[in-house]
Write a structure and sequence with these properties.
heterodimer, A: mainly alpha, 0% strand, B: alpha+beta, 7 helices, 4 strands, 8% strand, elongated
Chain lengths: 141, 211
């Protein structure tokens, strides 16, 4: 009997193992690069923090479970990983087993991610929200 | 027959046996466009497309005393209503979604030297999605999403290309000229900060004198 349970995982579930894999790879590769990486030329020369500024340091802190450090360097990235990944996994689970409770996957979540990232990038370049920005002195990336 | 479920307002209700579900349909708690499913069905379907339920609703509704003018009691209108709502919102192109995902990743990782790895797929998927969406024979939506993916992809690629270019240039420069520029900029920044601290200290001193 064909049931909903027989349906496979939705493709977007791949985001979860891929992200975890990248983080694990990053944990083992990054320390060998850390000393040799030049500081971000964009930041040094123009003072402009791109939306990902601090992302590498946040990822490094995250894979070593230094939560406060990670949040301080790139809160958006850390929150997306810590909250977004379980939510994405749950949504995929719901696509596979529709009877479990929870939100359905909807593309508006993507718009939310993009808009919140842009707002985050703008906010932390402004004076009252400097605490969102990474420490500019040790800016490697 | 199996238990029935239906979704309403983003919430899933159930399980119900068929009698209960029919009562709820008759009471108007389940509308024709709500998705219903029971074990044995391959997909969640709008109520109006489930023959065994929509036929019964026309039988049950009048006997339950519902007003004849109620939209739930007129089975003829249901398929049209469902069809209209589906025509208005075609499925979003998967390529457009992929493009925006890669575009966001490209923006975030543009300064981690890997932005280009996400930027290029974002641009490719974005263009493919735009092409598919423009095809009148293929009703898919997501033009805004594809456009956003394209823009993010291009910006992310450009940023990471500029950064990679500058870094490669700097590493190749034998006289370390680039590093000197950066050191000069950082030295000026720290001097500025010292000056600011100095002036703040003076202000504080002045304040203490006044007391």
């Amino acid at each position: 009997m064909l049931t909903k349970e027989k349906q496979g995982w939705p493709r977007f579930v791949l985001v979860v193992p891929l992200t975890l894999l990248l983080l694990v790879v990053f944990r083992f590769i990054y320390p060998s690069l850390a000393g040799s990486m030049p500081s971000c030329p964009l930041l040094s020369l123009t003072g402009f923090q791109c939306p990902g500024c601090g992302g590498t340091r946040a990822a490094d802190a995250l894979v070593h479970f230094r939560w406060i450090d990670a949040l301080g360097n790139h809160a958006w990235f850390v929150l997306v990983v810590l909250i977004g990944l379980p939510v994405i996994f749950w949504m995929a689970l719901k696509e596979k087993y529709p009877t479990i409770p929870g939100p359905r996957f909807h593309e508006n979540w993507l718009w939310f991610c993009l808009v919140s990232l842009l707002i985050f990038a703008v906010l932390r370049s402004m004076e009252p929200f400097q605490w969102l920005a990474p420490d500019p002195i040790k800016s490697e990336n | 027959m199996g238990e029935w479920y239906y979704g309403k307002g983003g919430q899933q209700e159930g399980p119900f046996d068929e009698v209960t579900l029919r009562q709820r349909i008759a009471a108007g708690q389940v509308s024709p466009t709500d998705l219903v499913w029971r074990e044995g069905m391959a997909e969640w379907l709008p109520l109006s497309q489930v023959a065994e339920l929509s036929s019964s609703s026309s039988v049950v509704a009048p006997s339950s005393g519902a007003a004849p003018a109620s939209p739930y009691a007129s089975p003829g209108a249901n398929p049209a209503l469902a069809a209209a709502s589906y025509a208005a919102a075609p499925a979003t192109s998967g390529l457009a979604i992929a493009s925006l995902v890669c575009g966001i990743l490209a923006l975030v990782s543009s300064c981690m030297y890997v932005g280009i790895l996400f930027g290029i797929p974002a641009v490719i998927c974005g263009h493919m999605a735009m092409k598919k969406i423009a095809d009148p024979q293929n009703p898919v939506g997501g033009k805004g999403m594809a456009l956003a993916g394209l823009i993010c992809g291009y910006i992310g690629s450009l940023l990471s290309l500029v950064i990679i270019g500058v870094v490669v240039f700097a590493l190749n420069a034998t006289d370390g000229g680039f590093q000197k520029i950066i050191e000069e900029v950082e030295r000026q920044q720290s001097e500025n900060e010292e000056r600011i601290e100095e002036s703040q200290r003076q202000v504080e001193d002045a304040g203490e004198d006044a007391h």
